[in-house]
Amino acid sequence: MPASGRVLLAYSGGLDTSCILAWLIEEGYEVYAFMGDVGQEEDFVAAEKKALAVGAKKFFLEDLKKEFVTELIYPAVQANCIYENVYLLGTSLARPVIARGMIEVAAREGCDYVSHGCTGKGNDQVRFELAFYGLKPDIKVVAPWRIPEFYNRFPGRQALIAYASEKEIPVAQTTAKPWSTDENLFHISYEAGILEDPNTTPPTDMWKLTVSPEEAPSTPERITIEFKQGLPVKVTVPDDNNKVYTDGVEIFLTLNTLARKHGIGRIDIVENRFIGVKSRGCYESPGATILRVAHIDLEGLTLDRNVRALRDQFTTVELSRILYNGHFFTPEREFVMASIPSSQRTVNGLVRLKLYKGNVIVEGRESSEGLYDEQQSSMDELGGFEPTDTTGFIQIESIRIKKWAQANIRKQQAGVTAKDVYGSKA
Hints:
- Residues 179-403 form the Arginosuccinate synthase C-terminal domain.
- Residues 6-170 form the Arginosuccinate synthase-like N-terminal domain.
- This protein has helices at residues 15-27, 44-54, 65-78, 90-109, 124-135, 148-153, 157-166, 248-261, 286-302, 305-325, 331-337, 340-343, 374-377, 389-413, 418-422, and strands spanning 6-10, 30-37, 58-63, 113-115, 140-142, 180-183, 188-191, 221-228, 231-237, 243-245, 266-272, 278-284, 349-356, 359-366.
- By secondary structure, it is an alpha/beta fold.
- A five-stranded parallel beta sheet has the order 3-2-1-4-5, with helices on both faces.
- It starts with 5 loop residues before the first strand and ends with a helix.
């Protein structure tokens, strides 16, 4: 029995979603195409033309850049979010705003279903669908890559490329460059194809956003970023006649431009997907890399030691996991993000940076916050610090260590060897 009903497809204009659009029509659905503008470098006019030519009844483009920056990127910057100590979460950051935009259009247009082009092995299927259900619990989802009729017909990208050729659908992927990409204001990702061999070096022409560090300018460029409560509010570029940027989106676009020019933000990793499969991914996160370096540095000057430790151990770890796993529209995300403003209350000041051949180098920082005392920290004056006070501090700290040592000595005296006490390398 053929399918029926109106479906809103998350459309990127790439190989997968273009073929899925055609396939859904073959299956009997009335297909509407949705694109969220989250800052990707995309010819949206051409994408609309392509979607309609493939057979979409309507095309919707929603500008989501502002909310992407203010609701996702900036909290992630404040919390220093990172996955497995390397990945800055660019793809997962965009999914909540795209999903919300889709649900709003689906409700307005009377769509029976929403659909996406995420594979059955990846993270994005989880992120999108959990977001859909968190926003509209009764929504129905069509996930072609988990439908046997689809994935048996298209076991890989080569089959999709052949199908696109048959349907006369123009796609950027070729048999020579079969990798898949996802791009937004924050980053671009690359996976699949030859990249699935983790020992294959990415070809030079794969990288889209950044120049290679070797080809970056030999003259460094200096900038200043001002933060208020952990958020970037001003970027000053001395080499551009001290030009100042203050709008949130403008700040991020400017940092992206500068980082791209200086080869900043490339990574190549093997990560653990949420569903348990290891995956090789290559990423470019230019402006985000600059912001992270600057923000972490300013926290060293302005953030209380214990607050920072608690934030690092809890908010950073948990929010990163929540974002990566697609748990944005959940009570735990609301709970964790509620802790961010109080942790960032004192993170105010300026950071001076040097951008040079793939590196972000901190050259100085200043803040009016009172947590740093130059005289107290100085090795050249007492500055109100009484060195003899440290004697008592050390004595108190040594109590448990002395007791532990005494216990070990008693064991030795009782015939227990040092190897038993300290291990084989003692």
